[in-house]
Write the structure tokens for this entry.
Amino acid sequence: MLMNNWISKLSLNQRLSFPIMAFILAVFACFQFTSYRSYLNIERDNLLTRTQILATGVGANLTAAIQFNDFYAAEEILASFNADNLITMASLELPNHTVFAQYHNENNVYVAPTQKQETRIRDNGYYFSHELLYMIVPVTINSSEIGHIHLAVSLNKLHQIRVNHLQVSLFLLILISATGVYIINRLQLWVVTPITKLNDGIKRIINDKQYLPILEQKHSNDEFYELTRSFNNMVSTISQRDNELQAAMKHLSDEKSFAMNIIETVQHALLVVDQQGNITLANNTCHSVFGRPVAMMMYQPLTDILQPVDKDAFTLLFNQALKQNHQLDNLLIEGLNNKGEVRTYQIISRPLHQQYQILFAISDVTISHQAARQLQLAAKVFDNSQDSILVLDSKGVISMVNSTYLNITGFTEEQINGQHYSFLVDINEFNQVSPVLRRELSANNQWHGEINSHTANGEVLPLFVRTHRITDPYTQEVQTVVVASDQRSLHEMQRLEHMANHDPLTSLPNRVKLMQTLDSFLSHQVLTFESFAVLFIDLDGFKSVNDTYGHNIGDEVLKIIAKRLNDSVRKCDMVSRLAGDEFVILLSPTISEEGVNVTSERILSLLREPLHIPKIKNHIELGASIGCYYVNATDFQNSDDILRRADKAMYEAKMKGKGQVAHFNSLNNDLIL
């Protein structure tokens, strides 16, 4: 058991190395021991045989010496043993155990056998001691022993063989050990290292979640190489799947957190109702929707919480949702809250099949429902407005248009929506008002003025436009609302009014417009006590122009005169053509007579300048007479009296010699001062 525990603690490298080395050493030891024993036995047998043959031959030669008791001959014969340097001692004994002759090799050490060894020598005929081989070889004649040769043979050669064998064994041991180490190294490189790397890789995966590939063995294409490649592919796949799993788990966690946040922050009351209609789960929003603590609503019938006004109709739909899995989609009901107030609730239901319950999402839409009604009303107003309404986004693209604009232009909604507003205006004409429009929108978020659009058939459409810039408080998106009124009828009225109140030749106000303006000045004078002056102008020499050049040239002259008169007075003053070559100028307000005189002289000076008419070679020179009447606030007079007095002053100017200015009265501004 201890061995098993010890082995279980070893590494794979050690488990492979120890058995291999042990096996190699065991095989080597067994082989060497067997070969050593076999080789040693062979050498011993060879030595024994060779010595015995040699001793037998010598013994055959000793028979004569023994028979003749020739001691010297016997020693000479025994001396022949010196041919074998291993023979240490040779002794010829007679049957009576007396030594007859003896040979001793001085180069070798002789050790006499012990008694025990003597016994074994007599029994076996030989005995191998540690240093010597002891033998007894009989000397016979005709099968009769006449003596014995006792031999002592040196075992140095055997010892040398042992040493040589040991050296060879040691060399082989080193070679085999090196081979074993090389094999173990190869096993470690080819087997242990890949398995260790696989083990480390698996540990990293298990412990550290580190999906690192294993370095593949170079110049290898075996099963471990394929296993390493498969492991790396597995690691790559696991890493990819783990990343996907982590991403999915993170996404799921985020979605769960998001869902929980939604459930807690959603403005809908979320309630789970069982098959009996009782509430089993409610979120915190239920308190703000129904005005009741969530704990008090638990396990209460939903109908008791809603308190529907039409209880029978709601109970029917509610039972269908509970029993028949009928889904309620944006159902609107009216119910009473805990204060007895009628509220409008929007209900959505979905079955929870696994729990056998129903999820209700209920929101108080009283305000939004009222807003929706207001929005519907606004939509009706938008669509039925007598004015055209267009809505532009921040880029000037039309996003909405009402039917009034479509009716007056002949465009369809598909033709208008999505188009830039420049599609509807003359861009050159619009560029003239665009700077003012943009400046007013930036400063005041509104602008009004006239813009010419066009109909679908290209007809010019004059519009009085009121623009308003609106910014969404949530998205900060800027939109522009354009309300446009069709000015075609107004322009026609203005044209007719202009024709009725203006001279068709010079476009100056005519007598009708003059009288209206005089009446307006007189009404204004009652409030302000401001005086104004009336200049009655009659051209000198105009009749000769008509007589000389004709009425067409006379008309051209009148147009030039009208322009010069307009250029000579202020914008607040009015120049009108009374009739023929008579003009009336209203100077209002009038501060001093000196200012009036300066204006009168400027008029006379401009009218005296030669008139160049392209149709005639000679230039035309004219003059004028001016009659001035001051309308003071204390005079209390009418328009006819004013014109009559100004006309009288003009005739006085003509009587003075033409080209003169005559005053009917003086300016009285005492009340103003």
